[in-house]
What we know:
With 477 residues, the protein is an alpha+beta fold. The chain has helices spanning 9-20, 38-54, 61-74, 85-96, 123-126, 148-155, 211-225, 244-254, 279-282, 312-322, 413-428, 446-456, and strands spanning 81-83, 98-101, 104-109, 112-118, 134-138, 141-142, 162-169, 174-181, 183-186, 190-196, 199-204, 231-235, 260-265, 273-276, 301-305, 327-330, 338-344, 350-359, 375-376.
Amino acid sequence: MGQKLKITGWVAVGVLAGALTTVSLQTVARGAMSPLPLEEIQQLSAVFGLIKTDYVEPVDDKKLITDAISGMVSSLDPHSQYFDKKSFAEFREGTSGRFVGLGIEITQEDGLIKIVSPIEGSPAFRAGLKTNDLITKIEDTPVKTLTLSEAVKRMRGQPDTQVTLTILRKDESRTFPVTITREEIKTHSVKGKIIEPGYGWIRLSQFQDRTVEDFVQKAQELYKQDPRLKGLVLDLRNDPGGLLDGAVAISAAFLPPDVTVVTTDGQLADSKATYKASPEFYGRRGDPLAGLPAALKTVPLVVLVNEGSASASEIVAGALQDHKRAIVMGSQTFGKGSVQTVRPLGPDTGIKLTTARYYTPSGKSIQAKGIVPDVMIDETAEGNLFAALRMREADLDKHLTSGQGAEVQDAAREKAREEARKRLEEEAKKTPAERRVPDFGSDKDFPLQQAVNQLRGKPVLVSKTQTERKEEKKDTP
């Protein structure tokens, strides 16, 4: 059924990133070692020996051990993961916002790789690649034989190395090769602008190492353009999360000093923690928020969220909602209320392990439920056309429960997803200008228009179809 779906950026980004992202604790804790289950360890040793002696062909010792570790960790929940040397390096790239490659945002369409957008100033941008260009070959390999992740790996590589792409540009009816030199790409997770006089918009697409510094810079730019802002929209739609200290810092930018932003609870003593709106909880080198305009503490604020808002972005939305600092608008969020800690196993391997659940200041677990907006808003004037296609935490196999009751299954969800798939297939046939879900921040961005209406005290077109996902039933004794 899933093969019917053409993957497009404005649906897939929330699905994949929301499912795979992590909130990373910066502390490394060690608990007391539990006694090893000797009988089970002996069974593991026996299986290892049988594979080595009886399997049809020789198997590498290292592969057997790493696969066993990987299986042990991945069986716990969707977010725990073993990192080998290569995946550990890729994970670090993801949180740093830096990687070596060409500098293009891509998606997959009809078996080809489609360029969504070249990053301004990147090697791909300088080489003249354009939005909607199709990549048909990477070196001599047709992309129809590759998955999207395989294509990404082939385009990434070492700095100053070259890769040749074959490009199909439909509007010019020509195919041509382009040789591009890879270099380090720095992605920017913060955008913003004055939407109209008196009203600003800041979008966070992810919580990376530089997100807080970039947020401060963008806020300063907006207040320099319009020192008398009457309202601000903080856009967290399709923000898959990232670093915990970044979420605490962004929350602190709007909250009074020292109030609770989020609490965590797990087995280890260090996982039982309270994070407050204070530099000691988010400032690695002093207070990165020191340069913020003072008016940010009191400016009327709307937070935009959707089903792709996960993890760190849910921490921010939950904190600002619980302290009544902002009106949260949009759709119920992804529901990733668990904390992952990255533990090194050596110089270049490690594991990402779920170590705690997190709770909003009022004590609510968001795990497998999400943040419920104060005002439900659809993604278009015609309704929430494709939201059912976005994966939620509760849809993931082996997902952690909230710990606050048994979950309720939604029988109508699969029917809604099938209807949304059909609509998306029709939508994908249209040109970008004709599609009903425009880019975030554009003048046709329906939820953003409603957020500004809220700030201006004008009527808001509230969703007529969205309802809160059912409260979890409490376990009965």
